[in-house]
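[agent] plan:
  1. take the single chain provided in the ticket
  2. run structure prediction with default settings
  3. attach structure tokens to the ticket
  4. add a short note for the reviewer (M.T.)
[agent] executing step 1
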Amino acid sequence: MTKKQTLPATASTTSIAPVDITSARFKANPFPFYAQLRAEAPVFPVILPTKQRAWLVTRYDDVLSVLKDKRFAKDRHNAMTPEQLKKAPWVPPMFKPLERNMLDLDSPDHTRLRALVHKAFTPRLIEQMREQVQTLANELLDKVEPKGSMDVIADFALPLPLTVIGRILGVPVQDNHKFHRWTKTLISGGTNRNLFVLIPSIMGFMAYLKKLIKERRTRPQDDLITALVQAKEGSDQLSEDEILAMVILLLIAGHETTVNLIGSGTLALLEHSDQLAKLQSEPTLIKPAIEELLRFVCPVETTTERYASEDITIEGITIPRGELVLAAIGSANRDANYFDDPDTLDITRENNKHLAFGQGVHYCLGAPLSRLEGQIAISTLIQRIPDLRLSIAPEQVRWRGSFVLRGLEALPVSF
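[agent] step 2 finished; step 3 output follows
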């Protein structure tokens, strides 16, 4: 497809009303706003609830560039001036270990951590989960089917990936409910103005995990925490803080995004009955259907934080050194330069180069697991409960206010 002409940098942004991109109201339908930005102001400053300015990058080419350009640092210490670092949000000392996760690091630290984790988080491990995921999906539906109604999020989309990542890591089943409470608290930290309210939950989470990691050192099991403890590259291995940060990252990334894919993906199918019927009659379409749902509903709406390590100009707009940049995956995935009829859900879409899992060196490590869970969960749900329907009007569906992610609070259905 031919590229559209780029508007001059002088294009007015005054006609674009300011929005809170973390609000539930915005999450319900951010796509018209993104379409306006792509057309009028492809690099646009927004103010977050924390009062921090962030630059939204919205066109596909530019989002891809941000994802691959090493000048956009993940670690703010590699981007900010000493003066900017002094003004940056304060991180309590007890949270410092969490900064040692590979999502927030640049090379060479990121390269080292990813190589070690990759040794533990293998395709073989993912494929071994297929039967367990299928069994779990059936067990969850067995519980709700006699009732004739359920909340897709609480009864299905949440417990499935949470239980799976818990099993992969080696977390005792009876502790799963704690993990959702803890991870929800951690994610809310992105928009919470008062960090101190999070401290008790996060401290409890970290203490529990440290104990679990210590147990795996003395009594190894066939699980991912043991694999992380034992992972080596020559004489190099993960430190205690790095294992702790990695486990927390995998717990959050390993279930929250998939909850959103299953929940929002189900809603999208219910709102597009022709696509739902097509998928029910042709179950082999589940793989392209999941790719299309990833593009269409955007479980991860923007990339996690990146910081300009120097003054960087995109589309004629200069982003000053040290400032926060958010590449809007939800916008790139609706860019008409790359997708025909981008606002249309088409489960047979071909050449679907969506950016739902990112791109470049930080491409999502858990993408194969998320795809596997999404395919099994949605396929099982719509085949076992063919007359699934919303219990409320579509406009009453509640979205979660959040930073980066896009997902539902609840999805009540009946059958």
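[agent] step 4 note for reviewer: Residues 43 and 57 are 5 Å apart (CA to CA).
[agent] ticket updated
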